[in-house]
Amino acid sequence: MKRKIPLRKCILTNEMHPKKELLRIVSTKEGEVFVDPSGKKNGRGSYVVKNLEAVEKAREKEVLENRLGFDKETLAPIYDEIIRLIYREDIPKR
Question: Which residue intervals define the domain YlxR in the entry (predicted)?
């Protein structure tokens, strides 16, 4: 029997992707926002595709700011963390 692959919608591109191809951004009731590479932390999760072009375009158009309701200063380190995680995955594992 074939296992069902969980799909989630990327908030940057509005496209469905397998959950493993996405990074989870969490916003909590306390007003915190952070990247959750494990995908298991408590809070409201939004998914972002692991694609540098999409992330850079989203930064220019302030997509996360509009979707999550945080200001630019709060989300600047989040964009940086997403980009850092994408680069880290591109490095071949030995």
Answer: 8-82
